[in-house]
TrEMBL record, chain B:
Domain Cytochrome c assembly protein, first and last residues per copy: 50-201
The entry's keywords: Cell inner membrane, Cell membrane, Cytochrome c-type biogenesis, Membrane, Transmembrane, Transmembrane helix, Transport
Pfam families: Cytochrom_C_asm (PF01578)
Membrane topology qualifier: Multi-pass membrane protein
UniProt-recorded name of the protein: Heme exporter protein C
Length: 172, 265
């Protein structure tokens, strides 16, 4: 069977696309461990970055762990624990925390892990989860006991994303 | 079919592909007639939908319980991100048409698509940066999502530059089409970067399995804004392609006239 020129060109493009796609997939799979933006607390033991190497630690700010303080020279200091469930790492940070920093919310910190197990952060970034919710709906979920933001992610979206927000009270 | 002289662009109307199916739309003459009637409606519809969507998003949608009013950046950022990727998918299709079927209209479409695509990708990056500073605490992070979108921006700009870098338009179009198709592997990487790698950027809220993680009070205006921006993008690109087709016809007409005069003299 003789292929027409158009058909042949189509096959060349398709085959080249398949080859390129496979190569990319293999490369990404191979690099998956190196392409991480941050390490979770339970991954630290396995990777063992050492006290001299700066790395990013990411997870949830453990509920009730945040202590705000001031250093001797009057700068704000925060102590909190970052957890991913199985493991927890205590973190100290001198500086201003981002607006979205909250207990139960995601956080990514850059710093070094001391020999005492304390992670000394030089930068704290807040992570945002994929939920977008009007304040009235969040308040209603909290009021009815369906969700405490300190304990992490909200209930399944289907249970609240069409919820009618209670009429906003004036001055609230 | 005679081969055109190397320096002259591919003749447009004379090589109109015959045949049925979608190839009918590769005829530049038919394209001009069709878009002549379509474009006024497209501009009008884009203005109405975008006006309504913007008003809904900025004035009548609720703030976010955590982000407050800053969440309204989303109504520009997310449509720009979707358009950047959807537009690139369109560029890949046009490039395939150009490489396999040698449709001259596909070359022109690809050539006119890339500046617009670069613009929406730049807007996506800029609004993301403006959003990231107050929310995350940083303008930029080299995580997989942001880096792959930056690569997309470079692909758009590279394509725009490459197709214009050749004296012979056809060779530029060929090189650009190959670049665009190679770059298409970046699209799934962008989409799933937030799932495959851990990133600072959050995972998808709307295009995910199960219910959208976004209250409908924000989701609906977001979708209306997306439709509005898409209509505007389509109108802009179609108008550009029309202008390019007419420009080329004019040049061919002038060339033919010059040849006739040369022959008469």
């Amino acid at each position: 069977m003789k292929l027409s020129r158009k058909r042949r060109r189509l096959w060349i493009v398709v085959l080249a696309g398949l080859g390129l796609g496979t190569a990319t997939a293999l490369t990404l799979t191979a690099f998956q461990d190196n392409l991480v933006f941050f390490l979770a607390p339970s991954e630290i033991a396995g990777k063992n970055p050492g006290p001299e190497r700066a790395f990013r630690l990411g997870g949830l700010v453990e509920a009730g762990s945040l202590v705000k303080d001031t250093t001797a020279d009057g700068r704000p200091e925060a102590r909190f624990r970052v957890t991913d469930g199985p493991a927890t790492v205590p973190v100290t940070y001198v500086g201003v925390l981002p607006d979205l920093f909250r207990e139960g919310q995601g956080v990514v910190t850059l710093g070094k892990l001391g020999p005492d197990g304390q992670f000394r952060a030089s930068e704290v970034l807040a992570r945002h989860d994929e939920t977008y919710m009007p304040p009235e709906v969040a308040a209603a979920l909290k009021r009815t006991g369906h969700w405490d933001p300190k304990n992490g992610a909200p209930p399944p979206a289907a249970s609240w994303n069409t919820m009618e927000p209670a009429p906003a009270r004036q001055g609230s | 079919m005679s081969t055109p002289a190397p320096s002259s662009p591919r003749p447009l109307a004379s090589t109109a592909p015959r045949g049925g199916g979608l190839h009918r739309f590769a005829n530049p003459g038919r394209f001009l007639r069709l878009t002549d009637r379509l474009l006024p409606w497209l501009w009008g519809l884009a203005a109405v939908v975008l006006g309504a969507g913007t008003a809904w998003a900025l004035l009548f949608s609720p703030p976010d319980w955590q982000q407050g009013e800053t969440v309204r950046i989303m109504y520009v950022h997310v449509p720009m991100a979707w358009l950047a990727m959807g537009g690139y998918a369109g560029l890949a299709v046009a490039s395939l048409m150009s490489l396999v079927w040698r449709h001259p209209l596909a070359d022109i479409a690809a050539r006119e698509l890339s500046p617009a695509g670069a613009m929406v990708t730049a807007l996506c990056l800029a609004t993301g940066s403006l959003w990231g500073r107050p929310m995350w605490g940083t303008w930029w992070a080299w995580d997989a999502r942001m880096t792959s979108v930056l690569v997309l921006f470079f692909l758009w700009v590279g394509h725009a530059a490459l197709v214009r870098a050749f004296d012979e338009e056809e060779r530029g179009a060929r090189a650009g089409a190959i670049l665009a198709l190679i770059g298409a592997v970046n699209l799934p990487v962008i989409k799933w970067s937030v799932d495959w790698f851990n990133t600072l950027h959050q995972t998808a809220s709307v295009t995910r399995i199960g219910a959208p993680g976004m209250h409908t009070g924000m989701l609906y205006p977001l979708l209306v804004c997306t439709i509005g921006f898409t209509l505007l993008f389509a109108a802009l690109v179609l108008a550009q392609v029309r202008a390019a087709v007419m420009e080329r016809r004019l040049r061919q007409g002038q060339l033919a006239q010059a040849r006739r005069q040369e022959g008469a003299a």
